[in-house]
Amino acid sequence: ITFGDGLRGARPPVSSVIRVSYDYGGGLQGNVGIGAINKSPGVENGIKVNNEIPCWGGDETETTQEAEKHIAAFLKHRDRLVSAQDFQTIASRTPGVELGRVEVLPLFSPDTNLQDVLAEGVVTLMVIPSYDPLYPDTPEPDRLFLQTVCDYLSPRRLITTELHVAGPQYVPIWISVGIDVIPGVSVPPVREAVKTAIKEFLSPFTGGFTQDGWPLKKSVEALELWAVATRVEGVSKVNGVL
To answer: What burial letters (b/e) apply to 67-97, b meaning 16+ CB within 10 Å?
Structure first.
């Protein structure tokens, strides 16, 4: 970026703040946090550089093996969002974001939030990032994440389809488990292992008995948690689940 010298073109006023937006490649290593960029070989001494928002959108190049796997799917959907499987497949390939889970909800509008009300021509995608440093157990997409997915899908949807992209709505739950530990085994490690096993069973990514994420709208049942705790190594007996 160049400016005038005052004779040929205007120059910025003294102490003015200049904001720059740009795209630059380099893969996932370029997705640095706030304040990570503080210098540049292309600016003169005395000029301060800083990124006030996190860098995002960087992605790694597809390998040949990955591309070959996607050829058949591409020939099927032709990069157009028609079926529920098309939404699932194409959304999962959104560049610049790490999607941990995508749920396609046809005929559902988040404006009503009622499952028994069919919204004709509406498709809602619930997306969950694969990692959230603020909420590691309950990841939530931020505004940039949702906008990136929406911008990627919008030109691929049918003109008659109203598309919504939203994050999950987590339900708080408290769980208390009483256990007996096998004699001779240290209690604290077994207790922590039970906590971990139950968290994984309720996880949006590894939850459920199929281990592909806790199903939407499914209630948590005490007997299921009882079974999970019983299978933990070192547990001799489960006394109760609240």
So the answer is: eeeeeeeeeebeeebeeeebbebbbeebebb
